[in-house]
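User: Um, what's this?
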Amino acid sequence: MAPANGGVGNSPNTLTILGCVKLIRDTSIVLFACADGGIGTLGSAILLGLLASSAEEKLEKVSKGVTDRAQHPQLLNGFAHSTLEPHEDVRKPSRILACVRTEQSAERLRKQLPTFEHALSVKVIQGDNVRAVQAADTVLLGCQPKDLNSCLGALGMERALKGKLLISILAGVTIPQIQEVLARGETKESAKTSGATTTAVNGRTTSIIRAMPNTAAFVRASTTVITACSIATPSALRLVEWLFTCIGTVTHITAAQFDACTALCGSTPAFFALFIESLLDGAVALGLKRSEAQIMAAQTMKGAATLMLAGENPETVREKVATPGGSTIQGLLALERKASRGIVADALICCTSAASTLGSKQA
């Protein structure tokens, strides 16, 4: 693995992650720091997913995947093989810059980095977000929504982002809200430079794309939805598609659908985890070991999901299992008596409503 420190100079294809993630001309990634100084759960998931994808690609090129994969169990331990072909005209990042606020966060992140061989150079940058962005073409923003102003409103940040692609994975923060923060930064820059605006200096604007992956990016099984501003180019969209297909699947949606999809794709892994926890409690009460029950329940959920991804609708799957006079229908009736459908639907609606307000809670 490449060393986790060093300079921030321009080098081909850099991705910078600022409590978030960013891609730059020299193909580097920069991660922005969150309130606690780290790059956040999703930022970490994306980073590790990209490294796993890179490692897999490197191993396949060197050894056709069989012998060396057995020597690197990290690749077999959750990092699923991707069958998605990357866009041929996408310039893949070769460097990742992970930006954090404190030395403690920097050390914690370095310890999280995998030890298996991959083709990406990873550098952890402490307390120098603006300089990292200056070196980049594309930025993945993954700070907490409440930290949007402090992250993008830093002096020099608006100028550093001019003419670059900004990918936001902030729940509840719209593209117009991000543009407003950048506009305020431009006003601040203008006052600092006696009225000479950054637009006049650079003559370029920042292209913004919203994306919402989920924590399954850790195992490259994320479901990511994306929507773009009007000036986003086809090449920018292809780059974002490539980035997120490295960690799962991608679906294009409209801006109006984003909060609902944030709940459906971003939040429901917690819902599913709660459902499995409930099954485990019942299994333990019936005499099963919790660890064994977890494997059985999770694999069963995965199998049901695979059937639906193959084209079967939920009703068909349910009816195939709930045979007449059997035990499954009794369990289903017990759920229905507790109004489980309405409870789950209401939970998703409440989650969507909450997501829509996150952008208004900025520091």
The beta strands are 13-18, 23-25, 28-31, 95-100, 121-126, 138-141, 165-168, 207-212, 222-228, 248-252. Residues 175 and 274 are 32 Å apart (CA to CA). The chain is about 50% helix and 15% strand.
